[in-house]
Amino acid sequence: MRSFQPTRRTVLSALLLGGIVAILVCGGIAMLERAQRRNRLADETSPYLLQHADNPVDWFPWGDEAFEKARKEDKPIFLSVGYSTCHWCHVMERESFENEEIAAILNEHFVSIKVDREERPDVDEIYMRAVLIFTNGHGGWPMSVFLTPDGKPFFGGTYFPPEQFKRILLEIARLWREERQRVLQVADEVARTIAAELQLTLPSAQPLDETTAATVLNAAENALLRNLDKTNGGFGSAPKFPPHQALEFLLRRYAATQRLPLWEAAALTLRKMAQGGIYDHIGGGFHRYSVDAQWLVPHFEKMLYDNAQLAQVYAWAFELSGDPFFRRIAADTYAFVLREMTSPEGAFYSALDAESYPPTPRPASFVPSKEEGAFYLWRPDEVRAVLGEKDGELFCKIYGISDEPNFVNPHTGYSGCIPNLLQASVENWAKVLNMSVEEMWAKVDEWRAKLRDARDRRPKPHCDDKVLTSWNALMVRSLALGYRYLGDARYRQAAERTATFLWTTMRKPDGTLWHSYRNGIAKVDGMLDDYAYLLTALLELHEVTGEAQWLQQARELADTMVRLFWDEEKGGFWFTTERADVLVRSKPTIDGAEPSPNGMAALGLLRLANKTGEERYAHITKRTLETFGELMVRVPQGAMTLLIVLDEWQVTRKERAVIAERPIERVWVEPERLTLKAGATGVLRVNIAIAQGWHINSAEPQPNLQPTQLSVESRQVTVERVEFPPSKEVRLSFAPTSLKVYTGTITVTLWLRAKPEARGEELVTFRLRYQACDDRRCLVPMTARLQIPVSVTP
Q1: SS3 for 646?
Q2: At residue 33, does pLDDT exceed 50?
Q3: Where, by residue number, does the polypeptide cross the bilayer (predicted)?
Q4: Which of 350, 361, 655, 783 is the most buried (most CB within 10 A)?
Q5: Which residues contact 710 (CB under 8 A, 6 or more apart)?
Q6: 13 and 153: one domain?
Q7: How would DSSP label each residue in 538-589?
Q8: Cα separations in angstroms, 569 against 102, 556, 573, 576, 783
Q9: How far apart are CA 214 and CA 222, in angstroms?
Q10: pLDDT tens per residue across span 690-699
Q11: So what's the pLDDT on residue 364?
Q12: CATH number, domain at 52?
C-alpha cells in the first residue's frame, strides 16, 4: 500500500482531497451470476463490460449518452477502466461495485462509466496519464478517475479499498457541490499538462545522417548492457516484464555487428525467462510478468501480445544460434496460441485470466471462489497421480515441485508449486540417467502431454474472446516470422487465414479499420496501432510467400494510415483520427507491453519503400525518426522500436547505395518449389545475373577477399554438395595481380537430401553472400536471402 504523495504539479488536487491513499496495483474482475436488474453494459460486446452488467452501479459505456447525462444533471463522472483478466479489478468489483451502499452513492452523486482498456486504448492512455500525475508516477488497473462533465480529470488513483472508496466518493460529491471552482481549476491544470505530455513537445527535429544514427545506436546498446541483470537476465529488478523490443534490438544489432555481449545479454534473458515460472512448462506460452527478479512467480494471466512478440524473438534466436532450446520454446508458444487462443474464424482471442476455481475437492458447504494461479499450480501427489510414482517423482525433481510450495497467495493462503527449470535442466538429468538429450526431452514431452491433458480437466481460467485488430496483427507477423525461421508451414497457413479475416471483417467499405470484434460485431474505429501493426504483418507475409496480394493490401493500408494519422506540420503520427471522442490526441512513441505505434508505422513505411521504390514512404520514415530523435537519446530503453527502425534505416541506406549501382540484376532459384521423398536427393539451381561491367568474387578468391558463399538453413534437408561454376581471371586497375571472379549469368548447383524422418512442408532459406566490384572499386558485401517451399513425402 502506497500513500498519495503531492507534487508541485498536483498541489491543487492534493489540497482538494488531502490524505487520500491511492493504492496502485493491477486489477481484473470475476463476476458471479446474480438474479438482479442489468445495467446498460448488458448491451455491450466487451467481456469486461459484460462482467459488470449485473452490478447495482448504474454503469454507462463510454459515449455521448453518459457525458450528456452528466452535463444535464450537473454531476461529476466516475470513470473506471480495467480489463477482463486482471486480478485487482476483480477485487474492487467484489468489494465495491457489488456493494449496495457504495452503488447507491455512485448512482446518486455521479455518472459512472466503465471502459475496457483493451477496447479503448486511446481513453486508457489519456486518463492513465492523469493518474500518473495524481499519484506521483504510479499507475495500474483498475484505474479510478473523477472527471468534469466535459471529460477533464480532477482526481484519480487505482484500486481503493471499500471503506476508503466510500469516503472518497462522499468527499468528492461535497467538493463538487461546495467548492466547484477549485475542482474546475484543478481539472483545467491537469488537462493542460496531459495535452503537453501526450502531444510530445520536443526540441526541433535534427537532420538525420548515418553518423548520427551510428552514435545513437551505439549509445543504446551500451545503455542496455549497463542495465542488464547479469544473473537473471532482463533489465532492472522486480517486478520484471518480458523486454520484447529490447530483445529484438539486441538480436538485430548482434546479427549486424557480431558484438558478442549483445548476444550474451539476449540469450541470458531468453534462457532465464524460459526456465522460470513466467513460462508455462506444461502447456507452453508465457504469463504476463514475474513478481520477482528470478522470473519464478508470475502474474498468471496470458496475453496474446506477449506470446506473439516472444515467440518470434525465440524463433530468431534459434536462427542466429542453432540452439534447439530456443526452437522448442518458440514452437511450444506457437502451439499454445494455435490450440487455446484461436477462434473458429481463425482470429485470435485477447487473453486468459489469472484466476480460476481450484481443482482440489472441497467440502459441500464450501462456497467456491477463484484463486490466482489455481489452474497452473501442482502438488507432488497430483503429479504422481497422473504419471505414476516413479515418473512422477522424477518429473517433480526436474521441475522443482515439492511439498514446500514456491507460490503462496498472501491474501488467501492458497498455495502450490510452479513448475520451473531454474534449479535443474533436462540436459543435466539426461547425463544423470545416461540418456541422450533427445531421448530425455522425448520422455519429458510425453510427461508434459499427460499433465496437460489432466490440467485441461480442471476448471479453466476465463478467456477474453474479443478479437483486436492490433494484437491479431502482431500474431500474424509473428507467425510469418516463425514460418521463416522455423519452416513450419502451419504457421504460414495460420498467418494467412488471420490476415484474410482482418482484411475482410475488420476493414470497412471505405478502407478504414475497426479495432474490436466479438460475436459477429465489429466496433470502435481503428487507431494507429491497428494500422501500423497490420501494415508490418502484411509486409512480412509478402516476404515469406511472395504473393502480390499482401503487398497490394499493404500499400492500400499505408496510404490510409498516412491520410488519417500523419502530422505533416510537426512530424509523427497521431494515435487517433481527428473525429475521435477523446479529450486530446496523442502521439504514442514509447514502447510498453506492445511496440510503439509510431515506431511500427515508420518501420512499415520503410519496408514498403524498399519493396516498391516509392520515396514518399521513406521520407515519412526519416521525418518520424528526426521528430523523435531526442527521445531515442534521452530514454533509449523506452524507444527500442524507434531504434530498431533507425538501425534498419541506416542499413537500408547502405544497401540502397549498392542496389542503386545495380551490380546484380537478379537472383532466383529453380525450381520454385521442390518435393522430395524422405531419404531421397533433389537438385536446385541458384542463378545470379551480374550486370555488365561488374563482377563478384569467386567462391575461392585470393586471400583477404570476400568469397561468394551459399548457405542453406533447414530442419528437413541437408546439403550433400554445392558446385560453383569455374571462375575467370581478370586484371583490374586497383589490384596488383589477377583476380578470380564471376561475370555474366552464373549458376550454383546444390544437391539436397531429405532426412529419413522428415515429413511435411518447410520453407527452406538460402543465403547468398557476395561482394560486387567494377574495374575501379568494390562495394560493401551483401547478402541475398531467398526462400522456397520444400515438401517431404513418405
Answers
A1: helix
A2: no
A3: 12-32
A4: 350
A5: 686, 722, 748, 750, 766, 767, 768, 769
A6: yes
A7: HHHHHHHH--HHHHHHHHHHHHHHHHHHB-TTT-SB-SS-TT--SSS-----
A8: 48, 23, 11, 16, 38
A9: 12
A10: 998 899 999 9
A11: 54
A12: 3.40.30.10
Q: What is the pLDDT of residues 461-484, one digit of tens each?
A: 999 999 999 999 999 999 999 999
- pTM for the predicted model, two decimal places: 0.84
Name the band, by pLDDT with cuts 50, 70 and 90, for residue 9. Answer: very low
Q: Does the pLDDT of residue 194 top 60, yes or no?
A: yes
In a domain, 203, yes or no: no
Q: Could you tell me if 478 and 309 are in contact, meaning their C-beta atoms sit under 8 angstroms apart?
A: yes
Under DSSP, the state recorded for 8 is G
* 158 neighbors 25 (Cβ within 8 angstroms): yes
- Which of 610, 507, 489 has its CA nearest to residue 560? 507
Give the orientation angle of helix 324-340 with respect to helix 489-505, to 10 degrees: 40
The tens digit of pLDDT for each residue in 78-95 reads 999 999 998 899 999 999
- Residue 756, CA atoms < 13 Å, CB-side half-sphere: 0
- CA geometry: angle at 323 spanning 643 and 268, to 5°? 50
DSSP at 39: -
Mean pLDDT of the chain: 90
Same domain, yes or no, for 735 and 763?
yes
Burial 630-659 (b: 16+ CB within 10 A, else e): bbbeeebbbbbbbbbbbbbbbebeebeebe
Per-residue pLDDT at 716 exceeds 90? no
Picking from 615, 641, 661, the residue at the C-terminal end of a domain is 661
Tens of pLDDT, residues 527-558? 999 999 999 999 999 999 889 999 999 999 99
Structural domain ending residue among the three candidates 154, 176, 198 = 198
> Do 474 and 428 have their domain in common?
no
Range with the poorest average pLDDT among 110-119, 190-199, 504-513: 190-199
Residues 772-794 pLDDT 10s: 888 877 887 888 888 888 999 98
CB 30, CB 93: distance < 8 Å: yes
Same domain, 129 and 31: yes
Q: Which amino acid is at 172?
A: I
For the record, the C-alpha cell of 735 comes out as 589490384
pLDDT at site 258:
87
Predicted confidence at residue 25, as pLDDT, reads 29
Number of structural domains, the chain?
4
Query: 415, 426, 332, 356: which is closest to 380 by C-alpha?
Result: 415
Q: Which domain holds residue 363?
A: 355-460
337 and 306 co-located in one domain: yes
- Which of the pair, 601 or 768, is modelled with greater confidence? 601
Cell of 391: 515418473
Give the DSSP H/E element, type plus range, for residue 395: helix 389-399
- Exposed/middle/buried for residue 705 (C-beta within 10 Å: 0-12, 13-18, 19+): middle
Report the C-alpha gap between 498 and 298 in whole angstroms: 29
Residue 89: which of 353, 297, 341, 278 has the closest Cα?
Answer: 353
In whole angstroms, what separates CA 401 from the centre of its chain? 30
d(CA 597, CA 80): 25
Does 780 lie in the same domain as 688? yes
* Alpha-carbon dihedral sign for residues 483, 488, 492, 494: negative
Q: How confident is the model at residue 204, as a pLDDT?
A: 59
CA 472 to each of CA 477, 503, 517, 537: distance values in angstroms, whole numbers, following the listed order? 9, 11, 11, 9
**DSSP character at residue 31:** P
- Residues with Cβ within 8 Å of 91's Cβ and at least 6 positions away in sequence, in order, are 27, 159
Q: What is the pLDDT of residues 564-619, one digit of tens each?
A: 999 999 999 999 998 878 999 999 999 999 999 999 999 999 999 989 989 999 99
Q: Give the three-state DSSP class for 483.
A: helix
CATH of the domain at 671: 2.60.40.1250
Q: Is 137 part of any domain? A: yes
Residue 74 lies inside a defined structural domain of this protein = yes
Residue 705 domain-assigned? yes
> What's the sign of the alpha-carbon dihedral 494, 499, 504, 505?
positive
Q: Are residues 547 and 446 in the same domain?
A: no
